[in-house]
């Protein structure tokens, strides 16, 4: 069984009309999932409850939760920045977003199942601070809940941005292996996620980062993924997997500079699902994440759900939904599969050289800690 978490309350998480994180991507995704016929006896929608304060406090400090509740800008807590402005209702909206992933994790403790919360994946939030559009770190909250039943949780983050908040929260924890593949922090927010960030104390070796060269596309992204992720499954033997499936790696994304296509995205999600089935009894908690081209996000997340169901992504979009999308957004959505993007030969050489160096360094860093892994 796959549980899909959705409520219209998610749409209140809205930083305003000029902000790239437009909540309409969630309602459009939900509608596409429905119109594509993916809701049946194998995939049920559940309406999550907002997170309660004691649940938030597993990860966040009471002082920070209080600061969010006050709904006043306070940069000491990351509230009121250009990226993460304060809006009326930010506290309740943030609790709703966190509640989706917390409820999904609770469900996965009760029964062997998979779950998908497209509104989740707010991976930049820290225990004491909002950052990068993220107020409460639902991914870390869900992992903390899953730890009540499971002693090895693998977090896989394929968003274009480094999953810095989740990494930091579990940096010293050997029960949570965090893996993030992202556009290098040399070029992109949050400026972290380098190979030498490998964990600390008892968690040394349990943070794995693959920073990708600017403009890298499907071939390089999937090569790097394949060089690292299957080995992590084999070594860590996760009991459950939490995957942040941000789609801002897409070539059309306005905030990033990678060249991944929907084909590449679908291939990566397929591998996560396959490996989770093989090693972790199919216990996958999928979360949304970034993705700032509205034409891409609903297709990507609907495809992700199809893959979780063991199906191929649909190669056509339902006409009623396309009409709805065009009326609301003003342009046309992208369907799967999309075009392949091929940068010039010199760029390809630069990407290949930079990536080879990164993978070599990653292997060196981790071979000193646990030679059998990478
Ligand atoms: Zn992102």
Molecular structure report:
This protein has 374 residues and is α/β, with parallel strands linked by helices. The chain has helices at 24-35, 53-56, 62-70, 90-110, 138-146, 164-169, 218-236, 262-279, 297-308, 319-329, 345-369, and strands at residues 2-5, 43-46, 114-117, 153-157, 176-183, 207-212, 240-244, 284-287. The protein has a single domain (2-369), classed as Arginase, Chain A, CATH 3.40.800. Strands 2-1-3-8-7-4-5-6 form an eight-stranded parallel beta sheet, sandwiched between helices. It is globular and about 50 Å long. 53% of the residues are buried.
Features of this protein?
single chain, 374 residues, alpha/beta, Arginase, Chain A, eight-stranded parallel β-sheet, 39% helix, binds zinc ion
Over all CA atoms, what is the radius of gyration?
Answer: 19 Å
Strand order of the largest sheet: 2-1-3-8-7-4-5-6
Quaternary status of these chains? single chain
Query: What is the count of structural domains?
Result: 1
Regions with little confidence, pLDDT below 50 for 5+ residues: none
| Bound molecule types | zinc ion
> What is the element string, with H for helices and E for strands?
EHEHHHEHEHEEHEHEHHH
CATH homologous superfamily (4th level) name: Histone deacetylase domain
Strand percentage lies at 5-15%
CATH level-3 fold name: Arginase, Chain A
Measured as a percent range, the helix fraction is 25-40%
Strand tally is 8
Termini separation comes to 33 Å
The CATH class:
Alpha Beta
Backbone structural class: alpha/beta
The biggest sheet, with number of strands, parallel, antiparallel or mixed sense and barrel status, is: 8 strands, parallel
* Gross morphology: globular
